[in-house]
Structure formats: C-alpha cells, structure tokens
Design goal:
Number of domains: 1
Family: Belongs to the DNA repair enzymes AP/ExoA family.
Protein name: Endonuclease/Exonuclease/phosphatase
CATH class: Alpha Beta
GO molecular function, one term: double-stranded DNA 3'-5' DNA exonuclease activity
Order of helices and strands: EHHEHEEEHEEHEHEHEEEHEE
Helix content: 10-25%
Organism: Giardia muris
Cofactor: Mg(2+); Mn(2+)
Structural class: alpha+beta
Radius of gyration: 19 Å
CATH architecture: 4-Layer Sandwich
Shape: globular
CATH superfamily: Endonuclease/exonuclease/phosphatase
Strand order of the largest sheet: 3-4-2-1-14-13
Length: about 325
C-alpha cells in the first residue's frame, strides 16, 4: 500500500522479462482454473520468509505478485541469483514448475513492479506488460495474459498518497493521478470486452470499497485508499465494466482483510483493510467456485494471499 513516487526516467534494458511461451495447440495444454494473488512487498524479502514452499503447498495454476520491487536494471541479476536453471535454452525458474513474466519499473529502481507465474502445462495465447500509457507502464504496474476464454489482468494500483488527515479539506497528494489511472484501466477493460474477451482483473487495487472492507471506516474517511473519490471510482469500475467482486458476491456478510499496517499489532488485532481483489466479468462469474482470503499464520508481507477457483467451462 505505497504512494505514488515522482517519476525519474532511467534507461530501459533490452533483454526479455519473461520465460512464457505462446502455444496455439488446443490438444496438449489446458486453461488455468486456480489463482492466487499476493502483494509481496519485495519478492526477495518474501522468498527469505518461505514464500515458495507455501506457494507449492497451495499449488495454484497462476500466481500473481504485486510490489516485487524488481526494477528493470535488476531483473537479470535477480533471475540469476534466485532462479534455478532448467536448461541452457530457458531462463531459470523462480518457482519450480512455473514460467514467469515480470513487469519491471523503469521509472524508479527497487519500486512497485509486478509478476505473474504460470504453471507449465497451461496454454498461454498472448501476453503484454504495457497498455501504452506512461502512468501505468513505467512503474511496472500492469501485466495481461490471454488464455483461451479470458484475459487475466494483474495490477498494482498506485496509492493516492499521504498527508495531514486531520485537516477536513485534506485530499491525498496524488489523488488526481490515481483517478486518471482508474480511467485508463476502465477504458482498457472495456476495449477488451468489446472485442469479446472476458476479463479477470486482480491484484492490490489499493481501495477499501465499502465500510465492510475496513476496520475503522469513520476514522479513515480521508485516508488514501478510502476517500469518497476512490470508492466511487471502484463502483464505476464494477458497474461501468460489468465486473463482479467475487469475494463480496460469494461472502456478502463476511469480514476479512487482506492488508494490515505494520504498527499497533494490527494483524494480531484484526485491524485491517480489504484492498486485494479478484474481479471478473459478469459472464465469467458463473464459473467462479470460490474466492477467499487465506487465513495464513505465516507472514510473507503486510498483505495476506487471496485465491479464486473456476470450474471447467
């Protein structure tokens, strides 16, 4: 749950940030059904806390990570240091049995950035880590993978900033940029759906949508991630793009949180926010079997993993 940073462009690197393979063969590979997403707040730190054994226990088809903090200039050294070589022809694996794609920040090293890991045997049609706008692209906040019947979009939405919350007129310092980001993403999702694609939109969306999604709604009315403008933008995303908040639709009265402050024993006292989501197109929701927030006692970051399962089409 980090704020926007002023962008200082740095030279990009030319080697690929992925080991994914596009495969058009219908008879050899399958579509993913199980998904896990987590903001790792630095993938190197999360790996040291035992993240990979946990992920292998969960065994999802697709793993989405927000805030990896692997910048464009650090990707190659990270892969060589943390990966395990499979063959001379392929990039090393970070998670055994999974191919990967990283969106790496070029605006600021060691900041933001995202990754998706896809289990071997899953059919990938296409993928991208850019929508063509610097507000989204330069900090590595977006990845899209096209599977047979839907597109998976994984994002790390920027926090709108921090400031003196006690002032009644206070607005987060980067609220206008945050709302522009929301507009760009809404347009992008609508364009995909107009082309007949169903969409899964997931990740750290950095907004608690309703009072059920935050432990102290009254006291956080002007807090970044719970301003009226951001909650309205979330409603516009759901309604304007025809998306379903899978956790809330399946568990309308359940209170669970996916992010906890590092201060005041927030996690132990269950004083959190639900800001990580799996949203899906209305038609695709018919295939959603479960959507949950994992009650995991092992802490890999200040966020808790979220999961979603689809039934076969």
């Amino acid at each position: 749950m980090k704020a926007f940073k002023k962008k200082t462009e740095e030279p990009s690197v030319t080697f690929p940030y992925h080991s994914l393979l596009k495969d058009e063969r219908m008879d050899t590979l399958r579509e993913p059904r199980t998904f896990l997403a987590i903001n790792v707040n630095g993938i190197r730190a999360a790996l040291k806390k035992g993240l990979i054994p946990f992920l292998l226990e969960q065994n999802p088809d697709v793993i989405c990570m927000s805030e990896t903090k692997v910048g464009a200039l650090a990707y190659q050294s990270f892969i060589q240091t943390e990966g395990k070589s499979i063959s001379n022809e392929e990039l090393p694996e970070i998670i055994p049995g999974y191919r990967h794609i990283f969106a790496c920040s070029s605006a600021r090293q060691g900041y933001a950035s995202t990754a998706i890991f896809v289990k071997r045997g899953i059919r990938v049609i296409d993928f991208a880590s850019s929508i063509g706008d610097s507000l989204v692209d330069t900090e590595g906040r977006y990845i899209r993978i096209a599977f047979s019947s839907f597109d998976l979009i994984h994002v790390y939405v920027p926090n709108s900033g921090r400031g003196a919350k006690k002032k009644p007129s206070f607005k987060p310092s980067f609220l206008s940029e945050r709302l522009e980001y929301e507009r760009l993403i809404r347009n992008h999702i609508n364009e995909l759906q107009q082309r007949g694609r169903q969409v899964i939109y997931c990740g750290d969306l950095n907004v608690a949508h309703t009072p059920r999604d935050i432990h102290n709604p009254k006291g956080n009315e002007n807090s970044p991630g719970y301003t009226e403008e951001e909650r309205i933008a979330m409603t516009q995303l759901l309604q304007g793009c025809g998306l379903v908040d899978t956790f809330r639709r399946l568990h309308p009265g359940l209170v669970k949180y996916s992010w906890f402050s590092n201060f005041g024993n927030s996690r132990e006292n269950l004083l959190g926010w639900r800001i990580d989501y799996f949203l899906v197109s209305n038609q695709l929701f018919e295939r959603v079997v479960e959507s949950d927030i994992i009650d995991e006692k092992r802490y890999f970051s200040d966020h808790t993993p979220i999961t979603m399962t689809l039934k076969n089409d």
